[in-house]
Design brief:
With 407 residues, the chain is α/β, with parallel strands linked by helices. It is built from 14 helices and 14 strands. It binds NADP nicotinamide-adenine-dinucleotide phosphate.
Length: 407
């Protein structure tokens, strides 16, 4: 009988604890799939274990500490010592991916990270292996469960952002400090990882512009409903103008879009390529057991001897000025000629209106419209001109829209 595979576990929190339990429960299944039975060789937390001793006793390291320090040093040491590593750490990969993959290649070790990109959805394996030899045009979707829960609840109940965030924290869908989730930074790290895999080019977190959902108002969602739209925080990585664009932003979708019905703390990712048309996968965005299951899948892949290649093959430029369609929410004085003035500013900037909802409220009025796709720099210019009009009662609010209507 072959010796058991000895696994060193770094971190024993929400995911690490669940992984230790799952590994014990599923050891027989891992053995059946790979021919080798896994066994924990030691666990490191802030108060328990010694990294060097655990490394010396282990054949494979699972890093579930999170953050970059000391996780980066531990992962580098493990790889240099020739140990394959599984991690769920998006920050580590989005900030130091090139260095880590380089060291892994030199050492002939594997670095696996399925749980770092979109919760339990097997998007890393799919992009890297199933679609590894086709040209991908676009990978995009909902890669943060906390914000999707908040937006779903705001749309369903009409409650304000702050109240729904508090409820998400009570239910365990948002951390005590939710900043990185709600401001888009968590999604940006995941999109940097996915862009690198899809386009074989180095992408780091600091190259991914992101916007969050903190400014979304309940009435944006109510008006949007009238226009047939629902709001999602989207991560988008796509080929554009000879380069790539990778961004995170709140975005309205028309009903019928495959991502429109994805509600609550779920994630969903779409891949588009001429060879496959379009593939959509959805599933839980986080959770101890769910994430641990994705980590265990990586352990199985390593033991089964599958070796993914992580070499950047291209150096694609990052394109920043893109075209988008927009939702525009204006609070204006209810006077004759205001709509004409706004239409003139849009017209002068070659921006055409797709649909408008107008409401009078006392002396004021709301103009809510969707404009057709235009260059974002042109739209920003028009927005500045509109904001300067004396009839404007508050700053204009604009959110991107995916114009495609699915029937
Ligand atoms: N939670 C999720 O649903 C989820 C989903 C996808 C990915 N992830 C990723 O999974 C990783 C782990 O997340 P988690 O939610 O399990 O975190 P967590 O509950 O905060 O657990 C972190 C663990 O790491 C240990 N640790 C922290 N600093 C350490 C240090 N300096 N030296 C040694 N050990 C240290 C902690 O030790 P103590 O026990 O002593 O505090 C704890 O056991 C992160 O990269 C996260 O982004 C999490």
């Amino acid at each position: 009988m072959p010796d058991p595979v000895r696994i060193g576990l770094l971190g024993h929190g929400t995911v690490g604890g669940a992984f230790a339990t799952l590994l014990a429960e599923r050891a027989g299944a891992v053995e059946a799939a790979t021919g080798r039975r896994p066994q924990l060789a030691g666990t490191l937390t802030r108060s328990e274990g010694d990294f060097s001793e655990i490394l010396g006793r282990s054949e494979l390291i699972v890093e579930l500490i999170g953050g970059t320090d000391p996780a980066r040093a531990y992962v580098l040491d493990a790889l240099r010592a020739g140990r394959s590593v599984v991690t769920a750490n998006k920050q580590l990969l989005a900030q130091h991916g090139e260095e880590l993959f380089g060291v892994a290649r030199e050492a002939g070790a594997q670095l696996r990270f399925e749980a770092a990109a979109a919760g339990v959805i097997p998007i890393v394996r799919t992009v890297q292996e199933s679609f590894g030899a086709i040209e991908i045009d676009k990978v995009f979707g909902i890669v943060n469960g906390t914000t999707n829960f908040i937006l779903t609840e705001m749309a369903a109940t009409g409650a304000a952002y702050g109240d729904v965030l508090a409820r998400a924290q009570e239910l365990g869908y948002a951390e005590a400090d939710p900043t990185e989730d709600v401001n888009g930074a968590d999604a940006a790290a995941k999109m940097a990882i996915l862009a690198r895999l899809a386009f074989h080019t180095p992408v780091t977190l600091d190259q991914v512009p992101y916007e969050g959902i903190e400014q979304v108002k309940p009435d944006d969602l109510a008006y949007a409903k009238e226009l047939g739209l629902s709001l999602k925080l989207l991560g988008v990585a796509e080929r554009r103008a000879g380069g790539i664009s990778v961004r995170v932003f709140p975005c309205f979708l028309y009903g019928g879009h495959p991502l429109a019905p994805v509600g609550g703390p779920f994630n969903a990712v779409m891949v588009e390529a001429p060879a496959i048309t379009e593939v959509t996968m959805s599933g839980p965005g986080a959770g101890g057991v769910e994430t641990a299951a994705a980590v265990l899948g990586d352990v199985v892949s390593i033991l089964a001897g599958e070796v993914p290649v992580h070499e950047a093959r291209e150096r694609l430029p990052l394109v920043t000025d893109l075209s988008s369609s927009f939702y525009l929410h204006l609070e204006v004085a209810d006077e004759p000629g205001v709509l004409a003035k706004i239409a003139r500013v849009l017209g002068e900037n070659e921006i055409s209106v797709k649909s408008v909802v107008q409401r009078g409220i006392g002396d004021d009025a709301r103009l809510v419209m969707v404009v057709h796709e235009c260059l974002e720099s042109r739209f920003s210019g028009a927005l500045e001109e509109i904001a300067a009009l004396e009839e404007l009662r508050s700053a204009p609010r604009a959110i991107r829209v995916i114009e495609e209507e699915f029937l």
